[in-house]
Structures are given as C-alpha cells and as structure tokens.
Amino acid sequence: MKTGLYGQRLTLMEELKAATFLPHARLQTAPFFQAMAACQLPLESYVGQLRALAAIHGVLEQAMESCPDERVASVWSRDMRKVPQLQQDLRYFEPRLVADLKEAVDATLKTVEQLRLRSVEQPLALLGCVYVLEGSTLGALVLRPLFARAFLLTGTDGLAYLHNYGTAVHARWAQYQQRMNGLRLSAEEGAQMAQAASDMFAQLEAIFRALYPFQPESKTFLVTSINPEAGRHPVPADAREVQASLRAADLCWQRFPYFEHRYGERGRRFARSDAAWQATLCQYDPAQILQQVRWLGRVLAGRGMPTLLLQDQLEILAAELAAAIPEKKSAYEKLLVAAAELRELRRRHLADDQLDTVADEFDRAVGPEWSARFPQTGALLVSAVADELEGSDGAVESLRPWLTDAARFPAEWIAAVEQTLAQARQQARRTAD
Question: Does the pLDDT value for residue 157 go beyond 60?
Fold first, then answer.
C-alpha cells in the first residue's frame, strides 16, 4: 500500500484515483462533452456512445461473472450490471435507425479486444476497468439533465443507463468503495489494476474523440447498430431490410423458446445481428451463399443451436424481406435455396418423417405441459444428431448437458431427452444401411 503526501497510507480507491488522475482529466477535455453541454451534440454521437458502452460492458460483465477469483466475487455483483439499461436505451432509439460512426466503432472494437485479452491474462486487474465505469455513475448525475435537454428526453426514455442507480448513486458508491478497499492485493496486482484503470480511461478518450467531431463520410450502418457485441460485419443499408431482418429473428426466436431460456436477451441480440448479416448475402450468387450458410451452420451447431434453427430463420427471413420489398423477391429467394440445402444435408441421415416421428414421441413422453413450455425440442435434438453425423463436432454435446440439467428439468424430461437421442441415432443407422 502506498503512502500519501504526509506519510498516511492510501486505500486502494485512493491509489486508483491518484494513478488515473491525468488520463481522467484528458478524457474530460474531449470535444464530445463541450458539444453536449452546448446542446450541439449530434444524435449519432450520443447513440454511438451507448453502443460503445454496451459492447464494453457486455464483455467486462461477462468476464466478471465467470472469473473464478473469489476476490472478484467479493466486489462484483449482478446488480452492478449496466447492459440491461444500455439495451433499454438502444431499443428506444432503434426506430430512428441512427447510423454508426466508423472510427468510433474501430476504437470500441480495439477496446473490447484488449478487455478480452486482459480477462485471460490478468482477470483480477479488470476490477480497475470496473472502477472507471462504476465511477461514471457519479458523473451521470451531472450528465443526465444535459442529455435530456439536448435530445428532449423525459423520464428514463433514452436515459435508463444514466438513471442506473436512481437516487442511491452515492450510497452505492460508498458500498463499492468499502468492498474495493477490503481487497487483499499484492503490490504487483495493485499495479496491474491501476494500469487497467488508466488504460480504460485512455481507451474511452479515443472512443469519445471519435464520436465527436466526425466527418460526414464516417456515417455508415454496421452491425453495432443492432448488436454492439457482434463485431463489424455488414448489415443492409436499406432500413426496410434491417427491420425485416429484426422481425424475422424475433419470429424465429419465439418459435423456439429453448433459445430464449438458454441464451437470454444476449442471445436474442446475436440472433438479430445474424439475421441482418444473412440479409446481405442476397447480393451474392447462390454458390457463395451456400458456402457462407454451411459455415455458419457448423459454427452454430457446435454452440447448441442445431441447423434446424438456421433453416427456419432463413425461410422466415426470405418471406419478411419479400413482404417488405416485393420487387426484390427473386433475390431474396436465394435464401430459400440455402435453407433447402440445410434440409437436404439433414435428410442424408434422417428423413423428414423420421424426424417428425421421433419428435412427436418426445412430446408425448414429456407431457403436454412441458412440450408446450419448450415446443420443437424433440426436433432440435434430432437435428443435432444429424448435424453431428454431417460433421459438426460437438453438435449433440453442446445441446445435451443443458437439456439434461436436473436443476432445470424433471427426471421424466431428462429420460425423454436421452431416449430421443438414442432413437435418432438408431433411425440414422437405418438410413445409412
């Protein structure tokens, strides 16, 4: 522990404040904040800030919750999460289809990558990044009325992130300080935490300077406008196609409740960004589309999302796009060709009637209550078996453990899952013979 000017011992929070004084001061000089105070900040800059923070918080909060170090758990709690409020704000602005700013996106992605690297090499040091972002809740008290005035916002509309702790900001900060100061750290760990905090201020400064001022040519539409955590892959430039993609993803999500239960709101965001990317494939020839869809199918199958879902989403997406822009229906129908290819790959191992028979038996085995709660589960299990036989390693094992968790499902359900997998494999052997 370091000492202050008069020899007194500094707390960890005082050490972090001293170590970050200069980068914090530099961040506050960014033109973004002067423009905001003068009510001259463009909406793209404000929404771009929300998207950047959503990406940063998404990675950081996930790292906090998965960190095995007990000292992290002694400081971090789920009620410190900011992603839900950021997503609420982004949903508020979603109908306005606000453009991204390329340079700000690049700065954000660089920050996210550095956070991911630190989460592997120095996970405890990420508490220094949390220090920076948690401290911003104090600044929110000053910033909130300025943003509200600049963009004519009322209540929590577009301001949920800045309302995060409501009237308990100072009390929450005091509790956070107490938890931080109670940590036992080596000198090296304290230095790493201070460096992480300083780096976070510098990274935020780069982002805010990219957000304002910006050149008109910086405005573009990237996937971050839909899902700040999805990287930088393209989305349609036509707002009608974007909206059709979002509708398609939501419809598919509703049809398979398993995905919502397992992956939550974060999974829904990725489903939406994936659908928007799939809509851009229509510009390519069918062979290129098939190549991309097969690749995505293998990736998703290995993450607990059988290709039956992707097939369904492509079919819904083609219909939604054609309904939105009928004159381009022939281009959108190329997605149906890709969906049909996925179906044929599954049929190599299990015919449609085999899938239906096994899936129906699963529903009967689990009973009407559970089959209504998790419809299509039997079909997903059969699809996973076919995906694995088609070469998607881990397709079944990425699905099975979650669906056989005794803390989540009754014994009858778990037995039905195992029986369905066995039946699907047996049917596939018959097809092969």
Answer: yes
How far apart are the C-alpha atoms of 93 and 222, rounded to whole Å? 15
Mean pLDDT, the chain, integer: 93
Distance CA 12, CA 140 (A): 23
The correct answer on CATH 1.20.910.10 for the domain covering 12-225 is yes
Residues 6+ apart with CB under 8 A from 336: 314, 315, 318
Which region, left, alpha or beta, applies to residue 100 given φ > 0 means left and ψ of -120 to 50 means alpha? beta
391 — alpha (psi -120 to 50), left (phi > 0) or beta?
left
Residue 167 to residue 278: CA distance in whole angstroms? 43
Does pLDDT of 71 surpass 50? yes
- Domain boundary assignment for the chain: 12-225, 239-347, 352-432
Q: How confident is the model at residue 97 (pLDDT cuts 50, 70, 90)?
A: confident
How far, CA to CA in Å, does 39 sit from each of 128, 137, 205, 333? 32, 21, 20, 46
Q: What angle do CA 412, 414, 420 make, to 5 degrees?
A: 100
Closest CA to 86 of 32, 129, 133, 22: 133
**Cα–Cα dist 413/409, whole Å:** 6
- Cα–Cα dist 142/137, whole Å: 10
